[in-house]
Inverse folding.
């Protein structure tokens, strides 16, 4: 098939390469990519044959909204637009309704696989019109490993499933993080974390691809000395917890994992200061003096 891809970052660039290796013809546009084949969305739309298929692999929020609205003005009846970013599923529902009025089908495709997708394939969770899904299935089959793609429901369903997927990912990562911190902290043993993470990949009930990646990290840097403990979040964890609250679904593990990410970004927690002050007030427990700002900077 011939299609256009907007966005040639870590995901979009590798997806483009995998599709071309699979025999598809791919036109590309990205603002800063020197190897793009089109210099604008307008030119991209002219390079793809009707009925057009255009796949967005750009950040959620304003960049996706701008690209969607621009392309909607260029696409025509029967064309298919795929949003493969991590958009909020409610935005995808709104966009699908807007696109439908012009005869354009919007598919929301949650894509997982990261930088390993080029070699291993991508897991794709697609929502939207089933007929449009069937049309682009040859593309999905090339991108995914066997059994790695599915039509999961109507508009928004793909991004909803991907949102929950990423919430689960937060919880899994935090469980590994806490477990390995305890393995490292105990004074009784000098444990080899690289060895243990490799060992647990063979027959253990906690084996996983995440554990395999962690073992690679320990192998390269046993004490993770080159990594600052600052963990960002891209929004899906927050959305997952918001929807859980709205549906009265308890999510203590995923909620705690999100808050742990927030805590990782604090040079010094004010909440911890409050705890220390209270322990000193009611129990006379010793408190440590705050470091001078210049000393704190040197320690970072």
């Amino acid at each position: 098939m011939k299609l256009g891809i907007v966005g040639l970052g870590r995901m979009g660039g590798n997806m483009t390469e995998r599709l071309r290796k699979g025999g598809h013809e791919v036109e590309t546009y990205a603002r800063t990519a020197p190897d793009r084949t089109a210099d604008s969305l307008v030119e991209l739309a002219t390079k793809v044959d009707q009925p057009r298929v255009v796949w967005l692999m750009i950040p959620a929020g304003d960049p996706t909204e701008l690209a969607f609205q621009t392309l909607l003005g260029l696409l025509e009846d029967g064309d298919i637009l795929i949003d493969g970013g991590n958009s909020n599923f409610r935005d995808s529902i709104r966009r699908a309704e807007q696109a439908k009025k012009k005869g354009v089908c919007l598919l929301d495709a949650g894509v997982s696989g990261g930088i390993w997708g080029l070699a291993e394939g991508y897991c794709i969770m697609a929502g939207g019109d089933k007929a449009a899904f069937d049309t682009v299935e040859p593309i999905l089959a090339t991108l995914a490993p066997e059994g790695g793609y599915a039509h999961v429901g109507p508009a928004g369903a793909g991004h909803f499933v991907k949102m929950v997927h990423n919430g689960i990912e937060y919880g899994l990562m935090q469980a590994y993080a806490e477990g390995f911190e305890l393995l490292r902290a105990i004074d009784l043993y000098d444990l080899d974390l690289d060895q243990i993470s490799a060992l647990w990949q063979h027959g253990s009930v906690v084996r996983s691809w995440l554990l395999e990646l962690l073992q690679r990290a320990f192998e390269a840097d046993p004490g993770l000395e080159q990594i600052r403990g600052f963990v960002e979040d891209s929004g899906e964890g927050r959305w997952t917890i918001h929807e859980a609250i709205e549906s009265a679904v308890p999510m203590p593990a995923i909620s705690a994992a999100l808050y742990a990410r927030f805590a990782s970004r604090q040079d010094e927690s004010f909440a911890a200061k409050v705890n220390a002050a209270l322990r000193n007030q009611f129990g006379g427990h010793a408190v440590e003096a705050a470091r001078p700002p210049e000393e704190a900077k040197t320690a970072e």
Observations:
- The two ends are 51 Å apart (CA to CA).
- The first strand starts at residue 2 and ends at 6.
